[in-house]
Amino acid sequence: MPYTCLTTTKGGYVLMKKRLLGYVALALVCMMIGSAVTLAGDPVAQAENTVTTVVTSPFTAAIAEVRGSVVGVNNYQTVRYSNRNSYSLDDFFGDFGGFGGFGGFGGGYGNGYGNNRGLEEQVQEVLAGTGSGVVVGEGYVLTNFHVVEDATRLEISVMEPGKEEATTYASTLVAYDENLDVAVIYAPDLKLPPVKLGDSDSLLVGDWAICIGNPLSEQFTGTVTVGIVSALDRAVSSTTYDKYGRRETITNTMIQTDAAINAGNSGGGMFSVTGELMGIPTLKYTGSAYSGSTVEGIGMCIPINAAKPIIMDVLENGLTENVSKTASAAQSSNTSLIGKPRMGVSVANINQSSTLVLNGVLPKGVYVSEVEAGSPAEKAGMQAGDIIVDVNDTIVTTSDEMNAIIRSKSAGDVLKVKVYRVAGLADLMDQDSIDPDDVPDGEYVDLEVSLAVVDEVKQ
Fold first, then answer.
1. Could you give the C-alpha distances from 188 to 168, 171, 185, 220, 319, in angstroms and in order?
2. 85-115+325-459, what's its fold?
3. I need a labelling partner for 277 at 20 to 30 A (CA). Which of 37, 104, 173, 445 fits?
4. 168 near 191, Cβ under 8 Å?
5. Per the confidence metrics, is the pTM higher than 0.70?
6. By C-alpha distance, which of 211, 363, 348 is closest to 284?
7. Cβ–Cβ under 8 Å, residues 258 and 230
């Protein structure tokens, strides 16, 4: 019996023969072959479409525009060391020199490690760390403060095409905000085009984030990674040190991105697809302090709008003095101050290599061991145990620096003195040794001291 297909007509059901069915099947096969040829199309046209997609990538144009303006930053530091390793209360102070008479200033004249007379001090300059930076003006480079912190010498490193070694440029720290963790350095011989500053307030979650920097120093100069803005307004707390050397906790609002950020990327740029600088890659999370789990793709960038005030101040006003100023060349603290204005205190230099200072428990400064009764310092409210950290908006870390400022003043002049005060610190100093955990938190106190000539006052 032949195969049949049932179809419908107006008149009802009709049986059709097998041959007709074969014709229909052949027609269907031809239609399928024709469709396949049409779908395949012209292979050249397909290739052209693919190439067009690559050329119109949202990243290549922006990267080509800004990549050459991202540089390396080298932080060189001078390291001093001796063969002394133990610490006691003597390590907290420099060489006292005694409190009696007018020469009782606390010398700290040894090798900087307490009473280590006779030990030979070794001095060496080392490359302490490397980071990245972005050119924001002619010769001006924006970076993180932690990239340049404690540097005795700074270099900007540029890897030029076709060269095996980077070209370096001497640079100077001209402005910074250590709480925000941003800094601007200046290299007069650097002639790279500045990038455009974007508006980080306009960012949306899901926007592209192009990060450029030098992870692992010059080995991977100009590395580009791409991700998205994962979140905005992330509150990030970190432990840092204030300008007087005391440890504190700072909270900043940052941009979260999943673009890869590695060691050495700090201070580089997070750019938009239009090549505008939107943020400064600063840190990444590698694990959880609570669960011990490792994490990936959580990087943080400082919004460029937060850094704009310091950038614009430098670009509009030129070079500025560092926030961390130092006094003019110090004079010998053993010089008699009889007949000259003074505060009326006995002081000692705090050894900056002591565990209390290195751990940020106490700031760098000048320790007040005694306040003379009736002296200008007592009238201003200064107390034994105070640590003088700033005089007339100048950071002081030694008695020489402090006295150099005082000597430039006259009787009746008022000094603005900032001290760090810890309740009971003077009593702790009477102990043979101090456990950092036993030192409570203190506070900064601003005083105004009216200098006077009081020959019987010790200073």
1. 12, 7, 10, 25, 11
2. Pdz3 Domain (2.30.42)
3. 173
4. no
5. no
6. 211
7. yes
Residue pair 134/277 in contact (Cβ under 8 Å)? The answer is yes
Phi then psi dihedrals of residue 386, to 5 deg: -70, 150
**What does the H/E/C string look like for 211-264?**
EEECCCHHHHCCEEEEEEEEEEEEEEEEEEECCCCCEEEEEEEEEEECCCCCCC
195: nearest Cα among 277, 288, 296, 280:
277
Question: Mean of the pLDDT values across residues 142-152?
Answer: 91
Domain locations in the chain?
A: 7-40, 85-115+325-459, 200-302
DSSP state letter for 159 = -
Phi and psi at residue 351, to the nearest 5°: -70, 120
Tens-digit pLDDT profile for residues 102-135: 222 322 223 333 334 445 567 888 898 899 999 9
> Residue 280: what residue type?
I
So which residues are the catalytic ones? 146, 181, 266
CATH 3.40.50.10540 correct for 200-302: no
Interatomic CA distance for residues 344 and 337, integer angstroms:
11
Residue 399 contacts residue 106 (beta carbons within 8 Å): yes
